[in-house]
Amino acid sequence: MKAFILDRYKKNGALRLGEMPEPTVRDDDVLVEIHAAGLNPLDSKIRDGEFKLILPYRPPFILGHDVAGRVVRVGSNVRRFKPDDEVYARPRDGQIGAFAEFIAVNEADLALKPQNLGMEEAASIPLVGLTAWQALVERAGLRKGQKVLIHAGSGGVGTFAIQLAKHLGATVATTTSTANVDLVRSLGADVVIDYKKEDFEKVLSGYDVVLNSLDGDTLQKSLKVLKPGGKLISISGPPDPGFAREQGLNWLLQQILRLLSFGIRRKAKARGVGYSFLYMRANGGQLSQLTSLIEAGIIRPVMDRVVPFEATNEAMAYLETGRSKGKVVIKLR
Ligand SMILES: NC(=O)c1ccc[n+]([C@@H]2O[C@H](COP(=O)([O-])OP(=O)(O)OC[C@H]3O[C@@H](n4cnc5c(N)ncnc54)[C@H](OP(=O)(O)O)[C@@H]3O)[C@@H](O)[C@H]2O)c1
Questions:
Q1: Residue nearest atom 33 in ligand 1 by C-alpha distance
Q2: CA-CA distance, 26 to 77, in Å (whole number)?
């Protein structure tokens, strides 16, 4: 099958369009014919070698963390899916490879695609949707009447998280540039901070939750907007000891991650707020819940662009500019 292959880790290196064997379908797997694949900054970070210690993929391998497509056949233990079902997924780590014609996805990671979305829109959802769910619902326990700051509201995670937080009944503040103020307002943001004109930490206070996806400077400043007992959840680092344990990392790596997050954990503690790093994980059950929200019209995908499969490298380079609005997706069929 055709695939975009990573031959060796290299910063900004191009993936090679070549032939790879069709994936092996194990007893718990579903073979999916890929119609569209979503792009995420995680793909570029893995290609650049930034995740080598935590996710030790051995080249050559196929990148890509978001798929939508049609079921071709299922393994002997699979009960919930059958050939021709239209599905979508963020396949688990170790089983990625969305930039290809086919992928074998563990049944537990898969969900039926929202019926009101096309394949390209569906492929834009899983990784960012699950990230928003796991941050706001699972980790933060965000409730009606609470206040949440979602950084980078116009990005892949931000566009989804704003809509989910509104659905949960929270008051939502977000940061964005002038060009995207109208977009984030249309998604339901109550308070919009144009970072070209204002400093969010001077405007906002008394927040229950901050979802950070930006740099260390933003992370530090975010402490100031939280009330005592508030939660600072970062998806862009630094990783903390809880993450090291969840990933089953060795003792040395655990100590390194402890040190990397020592400063922010200490400052958070001094202010009486909690700091944690979140690394999202595959979850077909949660994805099914997102399917319901999308079919009910509560959350809609925000698409920056759809590009042909052959332009995967160019699409990654575009995403890496950090200026995309919503999601970038590649179309295979
Ligand atoms: N840990 C996890 O499980 C996890 C999961 C998902 C994502 N992530 C990480 O989270 C980060 C965001 O991911 P994403 O998919 O949302 O990225 P993305 O779609 O590439 O984000 C692009 C958006 O970021 C906005 N942005 C850039 N700088 C900004 C700033 N200083 N203030 C406010 N907005 C700014 C841009 O808007 P403007 O043009 O208006 O600036 C643009 O719309 C990445 O680092 C990604 O790796 C982690």
A1: 152
A2: 9
pTM as predicted: 0.98
pLDDT score of 244: 93
Q: Tell me the three state secondary structure of residue 329.
A: strand
Q: Are 70 and 32 in contact (CB under 8 A)?
A: yes
Examine residue 80 and state whether it is found in any structural domain, yes or no. Answer: yes
How many C-beta atoms surround the C-beta of residue 272 within 10 A?
Answer: 11
Q: Is the CB of 300 under 6 A from ligand 1?
A: no
pLDDT per position as a tens digit, 283-295: 999 999 999 999 9
Q: Which domain holds residue 149?
A: 127-277
Query: Which pair of structure tokens corresponds to residue 51?
Result: 């995740």
Q: Alpha carbon of 61 to those of 57, 113, 195, 297: distances in Å?
A: 7, 26, 39, 37
Sheet holding 61-62, edge to edge: 16-19, 2-6, 61-62
Q: pLDDT tens-digit profile of 86-112?
A: 999 999 999 999 999 999 999 999 999
Scan for tokens 């655990």, then name that residue.
254
* CA 39/CA 316 separation, integer angstroms: 7
3-state helix, strand, coil split of the chain in percent (to 5) is 35, 25, 40
Based on the domain organization, do 150 and 232 belong to the same domain? yes
Note the pLDDT tens digit of each residue in 238-260: 999 999 999 999 999 999 999 99
Cα-to-centroid distance, 117 and ligand 1 (Å): 23
Same domain, 120 and 177: no
Q: Is the CB of 235 under 6 A from ligand 1?
A: yes
User: Atom 11 (ligand 1): residue with closest C-alpha?
Assistant: 213
3-class secondary structure, 39: coil
Same domain, 217 and 261: yes
158 CB within 6 A, ligand 1: yes
The rounded Å distance from CA 128 to ligand 1 centre is 10
